[in-house]
Amino acid sequence: MPTFMDGGGGGGGGGRGGAYLPAYSFGGAFERGMAVFKSNYGVLLGTAAVIFGTSVVDMAVRAVLEQVEPLLIVLWALPFTFCVTIPLSAGAMLVGARAARGGKAQITDLFLGYKRLGWVILWALLVSLAFIGLMIPGGIAVAVAFAAGGETVGLLVAIPLVLIYLGVFLCLTMRIFFVPAMLVDPELVPRDIIATAKASWALTRGNWPSLLGLSIVVGLLMAATFLLLCVGILFLGYPIYLAIMGTAYAMVVSPLVVRPGAA
Fold first, then answer.
1. For the stretch 130-167, what's the b/e string if a residue is b when 16 or more beta carbons lie within 10 angstroms of its beta carbon?
2. pLDDT for 27-84, tens place per residue?
3. What residues contact residue 199 under an 8 Å CB cut-off, 6+ apart?
4. Burial (CB count within 10 angstroms: exposed 0-12, middle 13-18, buried 19+), residue 188
5. What is d(CA 201, CA 117) in angstroms, rounded to the nearest whole number?
């Protein structure tokens, strides 16, 4: 099994698409991402439409189940999230990435998340359990503080803990944000979960604050487009997200991309 720096060479990351990608930077990802948005708008819009359609189905089913039996929503939501939302999100990232690499982006790339569905679901389960496990000690500490010292002591304990947990959560999230896409990216050497997580951790070292800032900026752009009669997020917001974050992903993982003819 290759190490995280094997299989690409040097950080250019041309890949099958053939495009040279510079090292990740906030400005570079944003500028190149907007260029990808303009030149691949049709494919990005189609991808967004599929994602939007699945969200509509999800909301419709939840609305029906709420009228029948609210507990059924959980039985629907968990499988839908792990088997539909997360795999499609991984594939959607690769739509923008393929375009950023200079290849021909296709809506069918959206379904690459099903290429190694078992790994994707297992990763999502492990991450969910890990974050829940991290929250338990803090929850116990806050509960004990409220019980032993009342509201004042409880708040004095809770507020710093919430801030600490928020910082840890944001850091960890950005360090492993690209793992699902990396697991199914056809231009990377296939790796297991542990090797992929290690690669993501290494590649985002020093970059995660910038990636967090980029995510926030793109999130604000999406929120702004939502104000355009609520349809702006479909026609502008989500395609922009796919283009910019897909480009950021392609830049970050470019050292891992297998170039044509590479051993």
1. eeeeeeeebeeebeebbeeeeeeebeebbeebeeebee
2. 999 999 999 999 999 999 999 999 999 999 999 999 999 998 888 999 999 999 999 9
3. 4, 182, 191, 253, 256
4. buried
5. 22
Given a contact cutoff of 8 angstroms between Cβ atoms, the answer to whether 184 and 120 are in contact is yes
Q: Is the pTM of this model over 0.90?
A: no
185 φ, ψ to 5°?
Answer: -65, 115
Dihedral, CA of residue 243, residue 249, residue 251 and residue 252, to nearest 10: 160
189 CB burial (10 A radius; 0-12, 13-18, 19+): middle
Q: How many residues does the chain have?
A: 263
Measured between alpha carbons, how far is 101 from 123 in angstroms, rounded to an integer?
26
Contact status, residue 237 vs residue 221, Cβ threshold 8 Å: yes
- Reduced to 3 states (helix: H, G, I; strand: E, B; else coil), residue 44 is helix
Residues 245, 93 contacting (CB under 8 angstroms): yes
CA angle 252/28/107 to nearest 5° reads: 65
Q: CA-CA distance, 98 to 146, in Å (whole number)? A: 51
The 8 Å CB, 24+ separation contacts for 125-130 are 125/82, 126/193, 127/176
Rounded CA gap, 240 and 263, in Å? 35
